[in-house]
Automatic annotation (TrEMBL):
Family: Belongs to the OMP decarboxylase family. Type 2 subfamily.
Keywords, comma-separated and alphabetical: Decarboxylase, Lyase, Pyrimidine biosynthesis
GO biological process: 'de novo' pyrimidine nucleobase biosynthetic process; 'de novo' UMP biosynthetic process
Pfam families: OMPdecase
Descriptive protein name: Orotidine 5'-phosphate decarboxylase
Enzyme Commission designation: 4.1.1.23
Domain of life: Bacteria
Signal peptide: none
Record-annotated Orotidine 5'-phosphate decarboxylase domain positions: 18-263
Enzyme class: lyase
GO MF term set: orotidine-5'-phosphate decarboxylase activity
Pathway(s): Pyrimidine metabolism; UMP biosynthesis via de novo pathway; UMP from orotate: step 2/2
Gene name tied to this protein: pyrF
Gene3D superfamilies referenced in this protein's UniProt entry, alphabetically: Aldolase class I
Species: Prauserella flavalba
Length: 276
């Protein structure tokens, strides 16, 4: 029997803490590292960052779009990042935010969750705004291969507020996403494989996460404004299943590997002091 993503994630977090380190090769970060904003600079940046970060965190989260922007060469670098992180013992959460219907969604699932695919990660992000049920191909294949799926619920960007807080039959759209994810995770032990994305900069009390029984990816931690002390009021009893995500807050300390390593260890220690 294939081990579920929830069990693998719990074990990784127990060993390395909850910090999720983003590998986001923004052009401005490449320039800050004195690298050209081309495929060669991308390769140096992404592999250097991954080699340092992946040995110290439970989860590495590459931002797929910033690799895709460089075409085939960028995708080749992304494949190497996934393999590098995996060899260092980190789980890979690929931030692709895919969401479609029918055979197209099935193709996305095969690309990112299928056994043997060069882009297969341990988990991916997906968008439910063509309908939560349209994501079924991803849920099904993730279940078969022991991978995870994180569904956008209440994101940290202000543009999402109007849609995500809109009424959906007496609850917000965001809460309906959480509830649908909870239904997928019902009975899973020790943790379900369907997570949600809830920004760390949101207001406490907006969502009821008590019945989720799944992981929570919390972007907005670090450079985007949320600190470790903000997490407990926001997530309450669900805090043990939260993965605070930081990218620029860590990556700005490069290109010196020692400075980057010190930043990730310092951030991980801060989270451990507050959350454990």
């Amino acid at each position: 029997m294939v081990e579920g993503f929830g069990a693998r994630l719990r074990r990784a977090v127990a060993a390395r803490g909850p910090l999720c380190a983003g590998v986001d090769p923004h052009p401005q970060l490449l320039r800050a590292w004195d690298l050209p904003a081309d495929a060669g600079g991308l390769e140096t940046f992404a592999l250097t960052a991954t080699e340092v970060l992946a040995g110290h965190v439970a989860v590495v989260k590459p931002q797929s779009a910033l690799f895709e922007a460089h075409g085939a060469k960028g995708i080749a670098v992304l494949e190497r990042v996934i393999e590098c992180a995996r060899q260092a013992g980190a789980l890979v959460l690929l931030d692709v935010k895919r969401g479609d219907i029918g055979s197209t969604m099935a193709a996305y699932a095969r690309a990112y969750l299928g056994e043997g695919s060069p882009l297969a990660a341990d988990a991916i992000t997906v968008s439910p705004y063509l309908g939560f049920g349209a994501l079924e191909p991803a849920f099904a294949l993730a279940g078969e291969t022991g991978r995870g799926v994180f569904v956008l619920a209440r994101t940290s960007n202000p543009e999402g507020e109007g849609l995500q807080r809109a009424d959906s039959g007496g609850r917000t759209v965001a809460q309906s996403v959480v509830d649908d994810a909870a239904a997928r995770n019902a009975g899973a032990v020790p943790l379900g494989a369907v997570g949600v994305v809830v920004g760390a900069t949101n207001r406490p009390g907006e969502l009821d996460l008590a019945g989720l029984n799944g992981p929570i990816l919390a972007p907005g931690f670090g450079e985007q404004g949320a600190g470790a002390e903000d997490l407990a009021p926001l997530f309450g009893d669900s805090l043990p299943d939260v993965l605070p995500a930081s990218a620029r807050g860590l990556l700005k300390h490069g290109p010196d590997p020692a400075a980057l390593r010190a930043a990730v260890l310092r951030t991980a220690d801060e989270l451990n002091r507050v959350l454990t």
